[in-house]
UniProtKB/TrEMBL annotation:
Cellular localization per UniProt: Cytoplasm
Gene name, Swiss-Prot/TrEMBL: lipB
Keyword Cytoplasm: yes
EC number: 2.3.1.181
Family: Belongs to the LipB family.
HAMAP family in UniProt: LipB (MF_00013)
Class in the EC hierarchy, top level: transferase
Gene3D superfamilies documented for this protein: Bira Bifunctional Protein, Domain 2
Catalysed reactions, as listed in the record: octanoyl-[ACP] + L-lysyl-[protein] = N(6)-octanoyl-L-lysyl-[protein] + holo-[ACP] + H(+)
UniProt source species: Flammeovirga pectinis
Positions annotated to bind substrate: 92-99, 165-167, 178-180
Name of the protein in question: Octanoyltransferase
Keyword terms: Acyltransferase, Cytoplasm, Transferase
UniProt GO BP: protein lipoylation
Highest taxon of source: Bacteria
Length: 241
């Protein structure tokens, strides 16, 4: 089991380019696993599979998951052009969400055979890393039963507010896509969608909750620290140009 995870702080990258890059890494891991099956059949040693953690910020974009409804995008083509927002239908789970500046988008591309083969546990640990990060900044956050993501104001709160959305894809226990954590994000862009298909709950950010802008690199380091602890990862960094 290889618990080494290559961390790449990509910075700002268009959504389509990041999706292609994720897919390239994802496919390579899957191909290694297929080769290992052939090697095992021949009595040869298996090759270690790689793991990655990408942090990226996207220009304004809406993405619609496989189970989403296109009517949850409240803009037509002209409206998207007017707002300078891209739109993609993608292969993760979940409904529609927004990515943009001031948001930490985390893409763990992991072979879960290196950690644990439990998708429910995987999602809950991604949420927990964000919950613990918010706790470090004095923000109480948690989960709402039946809904993915991280919320300010738990079950029974009159004004629950989503601060982190999740949507993943897995194949042969390899993951891609991940989470979108609102740090300093412009929340106005959520007004053009029904976020995650949920019409009766609000969206928030760390900046909105604390009344001040947060240093993105500082928050990223805290999230990374909690992910490393929760998943028992050995993270090493690969800085991208």
């Amino acid at each position: 089991m290889n618990k080494k995870v290559e961390y790449q702080h990509i910075g700002k990258m268009p959504y389509a380019k990041a999706w292609d890059y994720q897919t390239e890494l994802f496919d390579a891991i899957v191909q290694t696993k297929l080769e290992n099956r052939r090697r095992t059949d021949r009595g040869e040693d298996a090759l270690p599979t790689k793991n990655y953690l990408l942090f990226v910020e996207h220009p304004h974009v809406y993405t619609l998951g496989k189970s989403g409804k296109e009517e949850h995008l409240l803009l037509d083509k002209e409206g998207l052009e007017r707002e300078h927002v891209e739109f993609f239908k993608i292969n993760r789970g979940g409904d529609i969400t927004y990515h943009g500046p001031g948001q930490i988008v985390g893409y763990p591309i992991l072979d879960l055979d290196n950690f644990f083969t439990d998708i429910h546990k995987y999602l809950r640990l991604l949420e927990e890393a964000v919950i613990l990060t918010l706790k470090d900044y004095g923000i109480k956050a948690g989960r709402i039963d039946g809904l993915t993501g991280v919320w300010i104001g738990e079950e029974g709160d009159p004004n629950p507010r989503k601060i982190c959305a999740l949507g993943v894809k897995t194949s042969r226990w390899v993951t891609m896509h991940g989470f979108a954590f609102n740090v300093n994000a412009n929340l106005d862009y959520f007004g053009n969608i029904v976020p995650c298909g949920i019409s009766d709950k609000a969206v928030t950010s760390m900046q909105n909750e604390l009344g001040k802008e947060l240093p993105m690199n500082e928050v990223e380091e805290v999230v990374k620290k909690h992910l490393a602890t929760l998943f028992e990862m050995e993270i090493f960094e690969n800085k991208q140009n």
